[in-house]
Amino acid sequence: MRMGEMVARTGVSERLLRYYEDQGLLTPQRLPSGYREYAESDVDVVARIRTLLAAGLSTATISQVLPCVTAKLEPRCEVLIDQLHQERDRITASITALEESRRLLDGVLSAPVVNSVTDAD
Predict the structure, then answer these.
(1) Does the reported pTM lie above 0.90?
(2) Using one digit for the tens of pLDDT, what is the confidence trace for 31-45?
(3) All domains in the chain, ordered by first residue
């Protein structure tokens, strides 16, 4: 299928499909005219990419993980488990940092508001 149909079937923009190709996540065939031709299986690959991105993985990590997961995202490679644990730890650390930022912002928001310059004196 051509790019337009791939966009329609996946809901992913042409720009993102090209980006996935640049990152080595998709490898459509090239016609003599230069047009990309996607396989039916590429629709599922894009769905897996989107799911892994939503899980917080980078495209660099996804390029390593993608060959080691089934269509249902079940791991097939033992080394994948360790890498996914590392990614989970990284995400957990990010969540902890964001929660701390939110706590600090809540403190700022709960402080009394000074409405004028004279109130600040």
Answers:
(1) no
(2) 999 999 999 999 999
(3) 3-110 (1.10.1660.10)
